């Protein structure tokens, strides 16, 4: 199953119970943040679990990734190319191919070794895990060449390494927005756009306070920590679903930039007017008023038209 494997290895394959057939495989961690000094090394265990329902072979690769200035694209994988903050030469998986039966999990050590002359800053690479079938791999490659067909499934585990030293930490919250200014009902989707202009990744976080037209706070949403790559913009979306809403609301985002405890604030105002409910309410109110008017006018007419009783002497 393995070729060219050293005599002593630290990887393990575990048999798990209760693993259903999900027709996929999962890896973890999806993202790992590491701080190291120049010349330091560490090892991170990567878990790969087979839930495909059958035995499958896996291949491990390493490539760099960068951020994007397209808000809809968090990361860009570079394949064989080196990125401006390249980590791929410093990521060493213990083995690069293995096979798992359904319900088995590979615990694979990934060594990160930073050279002694490394400059302070961020280094970014990904361990790519893909499936392949050795028996049909040559046919699959032929199909890819002819038709550009991607036959292998692939997942990535991101490694964000911070080499300690003097760096440029610089970022800010650009905008807070909703997708429209008027709603009939929730949920309300908030979009925060954060720009990182420094040379290391940042981890912004914070809260969104929501107040009604009277200025009273009606809710508070957490902006969970997320990463923003250097020289990129990162979109964070948060949904607010509070049940019945009516009137004007103002949302205030307080975002910690992820360094030096600097807080950026942005606000946005929106209306929630459930016109169908309001229309039904006004219609019902009009019907009640009309009914009362009809009853009152017909009773008055009846009084006027009722003949007087016999005159008593």
Structure description:
- With 313 residues, this protein is mostly beta strands.
- It has helices at 137-147, 275-305; strands at residues 12-15, 24-28, 31-36, 41-51, 56-66, 76-77, 91-93, 97-100, 104-113, 121-132, 154-163, 171-178, 182-183, 188-196, 205-212, 217-223, 232-240, 247-256, 263-272.
- The strands form four sheets. Strands 3, 5, 6, 8, 10 and 11 form a six-stranded mixed sheet that branches.
- Strand 18 (247-256) and strand 19 form a beta hairpin.
- It is elongated.
- The N and C termini lie far apart (124 Å).
- The model is unreliable at 1-7 and 140-151 (pLDDT under 50).
Helix/strand layout:
Layout: E1 12-15, E2 24-28, E3 31-36, E4 41-51, E5 56-66, E6 76-77, E7 91-93, E8 97-100, E9 104-113, E10 121-132, H1 137-147, E11 154-163, E12 171-178, E13 182-183, E14 188-196, E15 205-212, E16 217-223, E17 232-240, E18 247-256, E19 263-272, H2 275-305
Parallel strand pairs: 3-11, 13-19
Antiparallel strand pairs: 1-9, 2-4, 4-9, 5-6, 5-8, 5-10, 7-9, 10-11, 12-14, 14-17, 15-16, 15-18, 18-19
Helix content: 10-25%
Beta content comes to: over 45%
CATH architecture of the largest domain: Sandwich
CATH homologous superfamily classification of the largest domain: Immunoglobulins
How widely separated are the two ends? 124 Å
The chain-level structural class is mainly beta
Poorly predicted parts: 1-7, 140-151
Number of domains: 2
Q: DSSP helix count?
A: 2
CATH class of the largest domain: Mainly Beta
Question: What is the mean predicted local confidence, pLDDT?
Answer: 87
